[in-house]
Amino acid sequence: MSGFLLDLFRHPHPIVVHFPIALIVVAAAYDLITIVRHREIPPGRGLLLWLVAAAGAALAVATGPEHDARGISASFEPHERLADVTLILALIVAAWRLWAAWRRQVVKGPVRKAAYTVLSVAAAVAVLVTGYYGGQMVYEEAIGVSMNGNQVHPPIPGSQGEHN
């Protein structure tokens, strides 16, 4: 098996995680532009973008290698909590968009637009801050980084989350 495929199966999180980061930020930017230009959000516009973003966020959370960082990184807990918040926000926005499309309802009115916009932008901010903490673990603490087949900062034996 090639090195890429082997890494994909052994360590999918670093490969998967970049898709929801980009998709959520682009989806929120699209929502903002749509609201500014059209003063409302037509039900089908951006729906697929949010559905794929939410699915990507779920996959990123599911593939997070917590055994690599639990107990040895101060960034792990905020990263994990914010990842869950990001997933919840993305699912709420995607569900809202799906519901609106199913009912063929435009997101309009000051309260609905404001609530929707806050959720959309909050998802983008949450995914960016989550990525910041993930980057801290990799680039500042070398969590999950191997060199010559050895982990630079291996998990502490007996730490929470270590898998036997």
Could you walk me through the main structural features you see in this protein, from its secondary elements to its overall organization?
The chain is elongated and about 55 Å long. A hairpin with a 2-residue loop joins β1 and β2 (150-151). It has helices at residues 3-10, 13-16, 18-38, 47-62, 66-69, 76-103, 110-140, and strands at 146-147, 150-151. The longest helix has 31 residues, at 110-140. It has 164 residues and is mainly α. It contains seven helices and two strands. The mean pLDDT is 84. The chain has one domain (3-151).
Strand order of the largest sheet: 1-2
What is the count of helical runs?
7
In the residues, how many domains can be counted? 1
Radius of gyration: 18 Å
Portion in beta strands: under 5%
- Report how far the terminal alpha carbons are from each other: 25 Å
Specify the biggest β-sheet: 2 strands, antiparallel
* Poorly predicted sequence stretches spanning 5 or more consecutive residues: none
Which geometry do the CA atoms define?
Answer: elongated
Structural class: mainly alpha
Give the proportion of residues in helices. 55-70%
Mean pLDDT: 84
Secondary-structure element pattern, one letter each: HHHHHHHEE
Give the beta-strand count. 2
Layout of secondary structure:
Blueprint: H1 3-10, H2 13-16, H3 18-38, H4 47-62, H5 66-69, H6 76-103, H7 110-140, E1 146-147, E2 150-151
Antiparallel strand pairs: 1-2
